[in-house]
Design a protein that fits this description.
Length: 400
């Protein structure tokens, strides 16, 4: 891993773009199923928080079980705090023997092995990590709370899996829903609820004007933004089908930003947009490495996803001072969005349309909800604070 140099068995030096190197006090191996060049929200999130972990003395290294590089991989694809991840490219149904062998050889170089996914069903990776003297941390980020995970095994095997779960020192859940699910399997003192976080951007009116000019938006345009994967789970089609007609005195526009995660859904989505009466008001931007210009260009954020572990893009939108109109997901979105104060939650298409039209017709309401949302993020979801909570888990302390 070209950006990371080993210094002794438990410390390392990060060599970034500056000449002065500094020591790390902890070394964490992050294990994913998928990482770049495949798109994963959890992988992108680690890239964002890695520099904050580094500032707290944590060296982060990534291995990915199922991702294989499809082009020449350069360390410039990743923040210096991560180096260049090692990608194994296993088949979905198989155990990656090369990854197991690599882990057996190298796990002892790390203080912590943090699993961000269930990379194999037999807990062999967890066992190798424990036998190598590592602390084992397991994250639950979507529908992989340990209770739900165990329910996915045949009944005859569940008793064994419940014992294998004991290989995990701490399970981290990112929402109350996942936290409660994991408590069905693990004792409370070994489960931590750590929400996701974001960095608070500076307000920049000039950057907003430049961003709106990029997409040709006028002062009369009210821009609704979606950021996320173009897939069925995110239900982007809902936003197209229920985009309201323009209110008097404004043009309501929809900007869709995100990668196409398969072939069928994006193709059907584009067909639906072409057939929509609102086609001229909808822009499909695709994936943006840095979506900040899209957030700055927008007037509100819309999100119809049907399943989330957290929904970090909602926090990003709130940090930019955008009012969010979001599907109510019990134990997830309703935990950090106060309906009517820091955002607007909907349960039906009618609710969605009503919320959008209210915001479109009332700039003062947009500013009020957006400002409250930004204050909430600054108070409760600062990325530096969240990084500190992870460091507490890595050190073995209880985390809020």
């Amino acid at each position: 891993m070209s950006d990371i140099a080993q210094v002794g068995s438990r410390a390392s030096v990060h060599r970034g773009s500056v000449a002065v190197a500094r020591p790390y006090t902890r070394s964490v191996l992050h294990v994913f199923s998928y990482f770049r060049p495949d798109f994963t929200g959890e992988g992108l999130y680690l890239e964002k928080i890695a520099s904050h972990l580094a500032a707290l003395g944590v060296r982060s290294t990534v291995i990915a079980a199922r991702t294989a590089p499809r082009t020449a991989t350069s360390s410039s694809h990743y923040p210096n705090a991560l180096g260049t991840p090692k990608l194994f490219g296993q088949d979905k149904a198989a155990i990656s023997l090369p990854m197991l062998a690599w882990l057996a050889l190298h796990a002892r170089e790390y203080d912590v092995v943090h699993f961000h996914a269930s990379v194999e069903r037999y807990f062999l990776c967890h066992a190798i990590a424990r036998l190598s003297g590592c602390r084992v941390v397991q994250s639950a980020t979507l529908d992989d709370g340990l209770g739900t995970l165990i329910d996915g095994y045949r009944g005859a095997y569940r008793w064994a899996v419940r014992r294998l779960v004991r290989l995990i020192d701490t399970a981290v859940a990112i929402s109350p829903k996942l936290y409660q699910d994991t408590l069905t399997v693990m004792p409370r003192d070994r489960v931590s609820l750590i929400p996701q976080g974001v960095a608070l951007p500076d307000a920049d009116p000039a950057a907003r004007m430049q961003a709106r000019h990029r997409w040709g938006y006028t002062p009369d345009d009210v821009v609704l933004l979606f950021v996320g994967g173009m897939c069925a789970r995110k239900d982007v089609r809902f936003l197209v089908d229920y985009l309201p007609p323009c209110p008097q005195g404004a043009t309501l526009r929809l900007l869709l930003v995100g990668p196409e995660l398969d072939d069928a859904y994006p193709r059907a989505l584009r067909a639906a947009i072409a057939a929509s009466p609102a086609a001229a008001r909808i822009t499909v931007e695709g994936y943006m490495d840095d979506p900040a210009p899209a957030y700055r260009a927008a007037d509100a954020f819309v999100f119809a996803s049907r399943q989330e572990g957290f929904g970090n893009v909602l926090l990003e939108a709130m940090a930019f001072g955008l009012p969010v109109v979001c599907r109510r997901l019990p134990g997830v979105t309703d935990d950090f969005i106060d309906d009517g104060t820091t955002g607007l939650l909907f349960d039906t298409p009618g609710d969605f349309r009503d919320h959008v039209l209210r915001l479109a017709a009332d700039p003062a309401l947009r500013r009020s909800i957006g400002s409250a949302a930004r204050r909430r993020v600054a108070l409760c979801y600062d990325l530096r604070t969240v990084a500190g909570q992870y460091v507490a888990v890595y050190d073995g302390a209880a985390s809020p």
